[in-house]
């Protein structure tokens, strides 16, 4: 299973869950899930179907933390046989029954039966500052990244120690956040279903590596000019897998504004159609610097129900798992500081009398893409 977004555990204490879209960098705290004061890490995702949010499972000392992002609940339960940590890496095995967690270099790792709440010791991980791993969707290998030197690692639970180096210096050395005690580590890792690998360090820098084939590239690619926007908090861990998209990831955000035009009822599908003018401006959102734009992408929330769609001329439209992406098909030069409108129509199925008069267009953002 996979979804459009993955999940980040953020904050050494009072840990919160954030949803994160690796394609456009969209990052939002899950407000319905309370913070957990002692903090947790070593998180994995247990998928429950394509149309459902996964359960997230993590560890804190000798407890299993179960987070239901759909219901907005968090509970902790003592695990039989699990020491008090500290814990770093974690992921659910492919069948969704066992959370595999790793502690210090010479200490046993543990396989936790999440239904029985029982932990069984496994081999020690070996040396290094690697703080998360993820199962490759094609071959089941556990992959991680060494924070100190960026080595790509294979974690083999049958070996003692488990860590081996697949290739040296593939990633840049990890950076720490400004939070007290932050580690220079790659603390959140995940794949898409094709085998593209993403690694986020404690400071929120995101790197992509194509592991869809047996050939390992020499170097990863850092995405965007900025970091995952969680302020000074430390990213502690990550979980999940995303559905692949035929679009390049980019977090180079530029200004976009919306103007609602009008709405009307539709018959097929029954619902409402909303018209907006979305105006792009060739100004970087973070710095306010005017810079040329040749290609762009606009994204926003779209209901993940049959018949929901977005339409606009001159762009390619992809809708998937509650998001719409409108991407320039070719170079569409926009000089630094200048603007251009794009008219978008959004169809939302449902009872027209119960749908809003104006679609909220949550999550609206635009990013600059590399020119071809």
UniProtKB/TrEMBL annotation:
Top-level division of the source organism's lineage: Bacteria
Disordered as annotated region, ranges: 350-372
Q: Which organism is it from?
A: Streptomyces lavendofoliae
Q: Where are the transmembrane segments?
A: none
Gene3D superfamilies for this protein: YVTN repeat-like/Quinoprotein amine dehydrogenase (2.130.10.10)
Protein name as it appears in the record: DUF6923 domain-containing protein
SUPFAM superfamilies for the chain:
NHL repeat (SSF101898)
Q: Which Pfam families match?
A: DUF6923 (PF21959)
**What sequence ranges are listed for the domain DUF6923?**
59-215
Name the InterPro entries for this protein.
DUF6923 (IPR054215), WD40/YVTN_repeat-like_dom_sf (IPR015943)
